[in-house]
Amino acid sequence: MNIAVFASGRGSNLQALIDAQNAGELAGGRIVLVLSDNPEAPALEKARAAGIETFLLPAGPGMTRHRSDNVAVEQLAERGVELVVLAGYMRLLSDEFVDRYKGRVINIHPSLLPAFKGLHGIRDAYEHGVKITGVTVHFVDRKLDNGPVIAQKAVPVLQEDTIQSLEERIHKAEHSIYPEVIRFYVEGRITVRGRKVTVKND
Ligand code: GRF
């Protein structure tokens, strides 16, 4: 199954997926393309270092989300991409894109959704003073951080935590849960009915 990863930043989740692929842990999943809206994204470097093709999405004045997503669709279609994985992609996808790839776009978010949606999931949870936060892997729908939840992992907030130490543990949880979910998807073990997602066990 050909996979495309969209990433705007550091790319640590992309790296976890690449490592899983190299270790044979993505089943028949293969990352064939990494797309970014940010020419400076370290994620692009990580992809190149792994020998994965990259594509810089057009941005700037006059380039609407709709037009940029159309360019993405062309790239995905050319490579027979069946699964789109968002890994720190900072742009919202257009409704048309989400509808076209319904059930085939997955995102990871650093909180236990529906709590702490948005750009600062870790910081917002920390500042709110919650005792448990975590990570969520979910299908993408038209609304931000809203689609059906596939998997979640809780991360306790420790009394001695700083925002940095909490961030580190959240990212560690992300790097273990994301490749696992992608493998389940590739293996055809995930089904969605409305908001309910079931994952078939071995
Ligand atoms: C991760 O925390 C992810 O949950 C969020 O964006 C961050 C991306 O980090 N959507 P990285 O670029 O994968 O290191």
Topology:
Blueprint: E1 2-6, H1 12-22, E2 30-36, H2 42-49, E3 53-56, H3 65-78, E4 81-86, H4 95-100, E5 105-109, H5 121-128, E6 132-139, E7 149-156, H6 163-186, E8 190-193, E9 196-199
Parallel strand pairs: 1-2, 1-4, 2-3, 4-5
Antiparallel strand pairs: 5-6, 6-7, 8-9
Helix pairs in contact: 1-6
What does this structure look like?
The chain is of the alpha/beta class and 202 residues long. Helix content is 35%, strand content 25%. The protein is globular. Helix 1 crosses helix 6. Strand 8 and strand 9 form a beta hairpin. Strands 3-2-1-4-5-6-7 form a 7-stranded mixed sheet, sandwiched between helices. Strands 8-9 form a two-stranded antiparallel sheet. It is built from 6 helices and 9 strands. Bound molecules: 5-O-phosphono-beta-D-ribofuranosylamine. The site of 5-O-phosphono-beta-D-ribofuranosylamine has 14 residues, from helix 1 and strand 5. 5-O-phosphono-beta-D-ribofuranosylamine binds next to helix 1 and strand 5.
Please tag this protein with its features.
single chain; 202 residues; alpha/beta; seven-stranded mixed sheet; 6 helices; globular; binds 5-O-phosphono-beta-D-ribofuranosylamine
In short:
This protein is α/β, with parallel strands linked by helices and 202 residues long. The chain has helices at 12-22, 42-49, 65-78, 95-100, 121-128, 163-186, and strands spanning 2-6, 30-36, 53-56, 81-86, 105-109, 132-139, 149-156, 190-193, 196-199.
